[in-house]
Amino acid sequence: MVLGLQRPSDLDKPEQLDKLLKAEEPKEDCWPCRITGSAALIGLGVYSFFSSRHQLNLQRAKIIKSGSRFGMQTRQTGVTGMAAVLVGMGVWRLVN
To answer: What is the C-alpha to C-alpha distance for residues 68 and 46, in angstroms, rounded to an integer?
Structure first.
């Protein structure tokens, strides 16, 4: 083998399936990685919930005055849903 190149005769043989499957097995993350990732996602969810709710309250009069079909309740539900998904992802990251 010169410079990592295979011989043409090696290319005619198929790879063994067992070797390929063992090489591609998923690896477990270390606990510090899980804790850091989950803390980041949970923190992002909590931060986005409180900051978005604060901005909605500041803009309440403009939103109601605009007459948009996406009123306060719809926007609050969207903010809560987005934050819940981020927190859920953080919990999932920690346990899986």
So the answer is: 27
Q: What is the pTM for the complete model shown?
A: 0.68
The Cα 17–Cα 14 span in angstroms is 9
| Residue at token pair 């969207």 | 78
The Cα–Cα gap between 44 and 53 comes to 14
The residue among 80, 85, 82, 90 whose CA lies nearest residue 42 is 90
Q: Does residue 17 register a pLDDT over 90?
A: no
Token pair of 20, please? 């390929």
The answer for residues whose C-beta is within 8 angstroms of residue 76's C-beta and 6 or more apart is 53, 56
Contact 70, 62 (CB under 8 A): no
Least confident of 1-5, 39-43, 44-48: 1-5
